[in-house]
């Protein structure tokens, strides 16, 4: 049962082979047993989860179930859920019990899904290894001396270790796809504006996008059916007709044009990752796809551009944490200014402070044009590179991450090395494009490798199709870590 | 470009983050490392390129000027560090 897909669990619930209370209990017990080793969850509330499971069972009995009714889901601790501690991985929100639900949580609640708990994450989603969390690092279930990636590292580890059937994440520069790759699961960052950001604690508002993380692309499609949708409370939520993201899953791949950017396979890509990705692409050729070489000439600029734009937006967004209306307030201070400065100095961790300072600087008088405006101009050049590439192909493929999971502590002293980890994933959020990662093999140390695919705007259904056909032909997505 | 200790202190003050001298020195070195990396942007000719603030080219929606939110003051203030009579308390600002 722990290895079952959402589709299988949904069928088992519908046939009354298992109840939601039994299913929820099964996963709560696994969390109790395995979480001390993995630190994937920040908050688990057994009573609250079981109450939701009982309500789901009643709904199933009444014949009013949706496909997600009774399914326990883990949520990244960036999503506000009413009555749940919602920390965003930070000390400054360590006492924040949310008084309201994020739109994503509302949607899942309405569908009858069960909240299994809140997952660990890099503080305010700023990190690529889950080591910046105030609640301690998450460990990769494939090798607990390595990182699970970040920032949605808790969600990724929870799904990989079968502590949850599926989870939510958010992606600003790769925070869904990179941890999915490093833990051998599937995850998608939808087109910007598809999933409402209401109640999703803001990091960089022009890039942040929520999305599902699960064992299969098909499960991600099922989850996105519920997560996506217009919400007037997010000013960037797009008013589009509802889509069934599972509609094209079985479509044959004959004639699919896969673009391979030569920059994705250049210097910096580890040999083991390259090998696994090239084998996956060979599989696609067998499935009827053909490949074309494309180019993303500004790829190397995407990381510096991101580390101007994201901190700039973060410095503005995080100014709301001042110890006045909610969250942590330092116990002793001299006056109002001192209270702000001490609260923020003690409430934020080192990486978050670093990014606030970068953002404050690049937005300050005299530097705005040289940094922020220049970054926004190059952002357009990067988006144009993708538009040009999509004139020649239907989907862009490559590695999700340049290496497999790295050891804990390996990159914490060198922010630039940590940032370069996101080289392949940062472009999609800068351009606003949807992008997905699926497991495609194993590299050094038996650690998972992710295959990255980027689609044109609103091509999620096609991406799920391309990923699903691969998962029908391969079994990488069914592999689970030993000793779990 | 290289940040000085005074600049780091000034940025921290603007960001309302207290910073000790030791922290300021370490922060200066780290930020300078990051800015050296960011500097490669300056070599790009962006003459005539329109800045891209957002991924989707859409305009802000407008809505009728009507009250849509209900009063939730009690729920929201229940989680505040310090409140009294419906007001958020902070150290005295005006003498």
Descriptors:
heterodimer; A: about 475 residues; alpha/beta; Amidase signature (AS) enzymes; eight-stranded mixed beta sheet; three-stranded mixed beta sheet; 15 helices; about 40% helix; B: about 100 residues; mainly alpha; Histone, subunit A; two-stranded antiparallel sheet; about 5% strand
Describe the protein in words.
The complex is a heterodimer of chains A (484) and B (95). Chain A is α/β, with parallel strands linked by helices and 484 residues long. Chain A is built from 15 helices and 11 strands. In chain A, a hairpin with a 5-residue loop joins β10 (435-442) and β11 (448-455). In chain A, α5 (153-160) runs parallel beside α6. Chain A is globular, with a radius of gyration of 21 Å. Chain B has a domain at 5-43: Orthogonal Bundle (Histone, subunit A), CATH 1.10.20. In chain B, strands 1-2 form a two-stranded antiparallel sheet. In chain B, a hairpin with a 2-residue loop joins β1 and β2. Chains A and B meet through α9, α10, α11, α12 and α13 of A and α1 and α2 of B.
Short synopsis of the structure:
The complex is a heterodimer of chains A (484) and B (95). With 484 residues, chain A is α/β, with parallel strands linked by helices.
Estimate the global geometry of chain B from the Cα principal axes.
Answer: flat
Unreliable residue runs of chain B: none
Assembly context of the chains? heterodimer
Helix content of chain A: 25-40%
CATH architecture of one domain in chain A, please? Alpha-Beta Complex
Supply the helix-strand structural class of chain B. mainly alpha
Q: Label the structural class of chain A.
A: alpha/beta
How is this fold's topology laid out?
The complex is a heterodimer of chains A (484) and B (95).
Chain A: H1 6-14, H2 20-38, E1 41-43, H3 46-61, E2 72-76, H4 103-111, E3 114-119, H5 153-160, E4 166-171, H6 177-183, E5 186-189, E6 209-214, H7 217-227, E7 257-261, H8 271-286, E8 290-294, H9 299-317, H10 336-347, H11 350-362, H12 369-389, E9 395-399, H13 415-420, H14 427-431, E10 435-442, E11 448-455, H15 460-473
Helix pairs in contact in A: 2-3, 5-6, 7-15, 9-11, 9-12
Chain B: H1 5-14, H2 21-38, H3 73-77, E1 83-84, E2 87-88
Antiparallel strand pairs in B: 1-2
């Amino acid at each position: 049962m722990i290895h079952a897909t959402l589709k299988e669990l949904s069928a088992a619930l519908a046939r009354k082979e298992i109840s939601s209370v039994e299913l929820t209990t099964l996963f709560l017990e696994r969390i109790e047993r395995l979480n001390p080793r993995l630190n994937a969850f920040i908050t688990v509330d057994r009573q609250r989860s079981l109450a939701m499971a009982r309500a789901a069972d009643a709904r199933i009995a009444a014949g009013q179930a949706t496909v997600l009714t009774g399914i326990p889901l883990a949520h990244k601790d960036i999503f506000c859920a009413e009555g749940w501690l919602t920390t965003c991985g930070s000390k400054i929100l360590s006492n924040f019990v949310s008084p309201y639900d994020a739109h994503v949580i509302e949607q899942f609640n309405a569908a009858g899904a069960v909240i299994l708990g809140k997952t660990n994450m890099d503080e305010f989603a700023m990190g690529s290894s889950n080591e910046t969390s105030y609640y301690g690092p998450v460990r990769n279930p494939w090798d607990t001396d390595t990182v699970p990636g970040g920032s949605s590292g808790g969600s990724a580890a929870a799904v990989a270790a079968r502590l949850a059937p599926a989870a939510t994440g958010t992606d600003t520069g790769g925070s869904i796809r990179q941890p999915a790759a490093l833990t051998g699961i599937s995850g998608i960052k939808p087109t910007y504006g598809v999933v409402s950001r209401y109640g999703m604690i803001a990091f960089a508002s022009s890039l942040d996008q929520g999305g599902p993380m699960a064992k299969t692309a098909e499960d991600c499609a099922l989850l996105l059916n519920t997560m996506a949708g217009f919400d007037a409370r997010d000013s960037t939520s797009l008013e589009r007709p509802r889509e069934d993201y599972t509609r094209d899953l079985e479509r044959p791949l004959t004639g699919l044009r896969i673009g391979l950017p030569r920059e994705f396979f250049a210097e910096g890509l580890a040999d083991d990752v390259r090998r696994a990705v090239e084998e996956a692409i060979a599989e696609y050729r067998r499935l009827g796809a053909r490949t074309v070489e494309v180019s993303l000439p500004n790829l190397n600029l995407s990381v510096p551009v991101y580390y101007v734009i994201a901190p700039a937006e973060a410095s503005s967004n995080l100014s709301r944490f001042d110890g006045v209306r909610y969250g942590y307030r330092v116990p002793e201070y001299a006056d109002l200014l001192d209270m702000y400065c001490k609260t923020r100095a003690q409430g934020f961790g080192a990486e978050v402070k670093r990014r606030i300072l970068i953002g404050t600087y690049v937005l300050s008088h005299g530097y705005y044009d040289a940094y922020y405006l220049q970054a926004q101009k190059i952002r357009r050049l990067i988006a144009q590179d993708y538009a040009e590439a999509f004139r020649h192909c239907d989907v862009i493929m490559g590695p999700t991450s340049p290496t497999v999971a790295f050891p804990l502590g390996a990159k914490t002293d060198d922010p630039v090395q940590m940032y370069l980890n996101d080289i392949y994933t940062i472009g999609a959020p800068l351009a606003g494009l949807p992008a997905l990662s699926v497991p495609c093999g194993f590299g050094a140390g038996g650690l998972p490798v992710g295959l990255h695919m980027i689609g044109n705007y609103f091509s999620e259904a096609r991406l799920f199709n391309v990923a699903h056909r691969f998962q029908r032909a391969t079994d990488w997505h069914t592999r689970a870590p030993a000793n779990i | 470009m290289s940040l000085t200790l005074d600049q780091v202190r000034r940025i921290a003050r603007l960001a309302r983050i207290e910073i000790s001298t030791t922290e300021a020195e370490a922060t200066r070195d780290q930020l300078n490392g990051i800015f050296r990396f960011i500097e490669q942007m300056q070599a790009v000719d962006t003459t005539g390129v329109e800045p891209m603030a957002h991924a989707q080219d859409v305009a802000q929606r407008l809505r009728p000027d009507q009250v849509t939110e209900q009063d939730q003051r009690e729920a929201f203030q229940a989680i505040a560090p310090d409140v009294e009579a419906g007001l958020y308390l902070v150290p005295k600002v005006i003498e």
